[in-house]
Amino acid sequence: MTLFSFAQDQLFPSCEVRPYIHLTQAGREQPLPGLCSLVRNLRLSLPKSHCCDAMATAGKWTALQGASLDKTIEQALTNTLSFPRMTPVQAAAIPPLLSSKDVCVEAETGSGKTLSYLVPIAQTVLFEKRAKPSSAVRALVIAPTRELATQVHAVAKHLFDALPGDLVPVPLIGGGTASAAPDDSFRGDFRVLIATPGRLAAALNQGFLNVAKLEVLVLDEADRLLDMGFSVTLTDILTRLPRQRRTGIYSATQTAEVEALARAGLRNPVRVAIKRTPASLQCRYHIVSPREKLAHMAYLLASHPQQKFIVYLMTCAPICALHGKMSQAKRERAMLKFASSKNGVLLCTDVAARGIDIPDVDWVLQFDPPQDPDAYIHRVGRTARLGREGNALLFLAPSEDTYADFLFVRRCPVSKFSELGISPSPLNTRDLTTRQNVARHSMRRARKEKRGRIEKPMAMIWSLKNNETKQLSG
C-alpha cells in the first residue's frame, strides 16, 4: 500500500467532487472517490482570476509579410478553424517556409507552432502544378510520441478537409500493429505524411515510401526527439531524404543538441524565437511540508469542482493514470475522456507534459517539482492556451524554496501562493499524520510477518542440520 492508495480510502470516500480517473493494480479504470471531512476544515481563500489580454496576435492573415496565402486557406483558417488572426510565431515562421527557406523555431507550447508549418505545407502541396494524389511523399512531419503525432494529424485533417483537392494527411505512427505500412484506406496518396521516428525508419527500410521528391521536412518538438534517444534514428532518416528541401525545426527549448542538429541539417536558417509566457497564465508556488501536500491538493481540488486540473507527479508509483507504463490503448482512452470532459482531474507524469493539446485546462498543479527545470515550462504550457486564462501552482517543500529563485534565473518568474490562505488546521494535520503512520506501521508489520513465515521454516531446517552434525560428531 502506497501513501496515495491509503489516502484514496481515507481521504476520498464520500464527497461529490471526483478526480478524473484511477487505474487499479488490476488495470481497471475507475473514478477516484470524493473528499472526506479530513480536509473540510482547511481554510482556502482564492481570488477570482484576473482578466488578462488574449494571446498576442500579429494581425490578420492578409497582413502576412513577405508571402501571400491562397484565398481558400485564409477562409479556412478564419471560418472553419476560427483563427482570424495570426500568432507571432505564425507570422514569423510561415513566410520563410513559403519562400523555400529553412527555419529554426523556438517558441513556448501553445503558441500556434502546429499551424505555422501546416499552413505552408498545405499551400505547397495543394496549389503546386502537380496538385494531385501521388505515392511520392512531398511533406513529412516527424513527432516524438504517438500522442503528439495523432494530435498533429487531427489538426492537419481538420485544415485539409476545409480546402479543395482531397488532400488527406497520412499517419504513420508507432504503438499500433507491427506492420510499418499504412492501411489501404489512403489509396496511395502519401503527399503529406505525419510519422513517429521508429515507424518511419521501419517503413523506409522496408521500401514502403518514396521520398525522392520530398519538399518540406518538419521536426516537431525536436528537443524531445533528441532527449528520447532518437538521434541515431533521425540521422538514418535524414541520410535517406533529398538535400534539396526546406526544413523546419520546432522546439520549446533551445538545447545544445538542437543547435547541433540545426547546424548539421539546415542551410542558413531563419531563426525565430518567441520566448513569452502567456499574459493570461498565473504561475505561483506554495511552500508546504511533504506530509501536508496531499491534504492541500485535496482541498484545492474540492474548492474548484467545475474546473479541469492536471496534476503532475514525479513518478507513476503513487497513482497511475497517464504514464509510460500504460498500454497504448489505455493511454488513448484516458486522453480522450479527459479532453472531452468539462471538468475533472488528470493525474499524470511528464508523458503528458509536451505537445499534448488538452482543451480548457484551468489548473496545472505540480505535486513534485520537475527534476529538469525545462520540464516546468512544458508542464505549465498545458493551461492558458490560445488566449484562455490559466493557473499554475507548484508545491515546494521548505528545503526546496530556492527552486523558485532558480526558475526566476531561468526567466520563469513565479509568485508565492501563501498569502492566498491555504493552511490546514493542526487537528487535521495531526489526523492525516496519524493515519499515515498507521498505514506505514501496517506495511512494516505485514513485511515482518511475511519475512517471518519464510525465516521460521529455514531456522527449523538449520536447527535440524546442526543437531545431525552434533550427533555425527559425537
TrEMBL record:
Family the entry assigns: Belongs to the DEAD box helicase family.
Domain (Helicase ATP-binding) ranges: 94-272
PANTHER family reported in the protein's UniProt record: RNA HELICASE (PTHR24031)
Keyword Secreted belongs to the record: no
Main function: RNA helicase.
Domain (Helicase C-terminal) ranges: 269-433
Protein name per UniProt: ATP-dependent RNA helicase
InterPro entries: DEAD/DEAH_box_helicase_dom (IPR011545), Helicase_ATP-bd (IPR014001), Helicase_C-like (IPR001650), P-loop_NTPase (IPR027417), RNA-helicase_DEAD-box_CS (IPR000629)
Keywords, comma-separated and alphabetical: ATP-binding, Helicase, Hydrolase, Nucleotide-binding, RNA-binding
Catalyzed reactions: ATP + H2O = ADP + phosphate + H(+)
UniProt-listed Pfam families: DEAD (PF00270), Helicase_C (PF00271)
Alphabetized GO MF terms: ATP binding; hydrolase activity; RNA binding; RNA helicase activity
Species per Swiss-Prot/TrEMBL record: Chondrus crispus (Carrageen Irish moss)
Domain-related comment: The Q motif is unique to and characteristic of the DEAD box family of RNA helicases and controls ATP binding and hydrolysis.
EC number(s) given by UniProt: 3.6.4.13
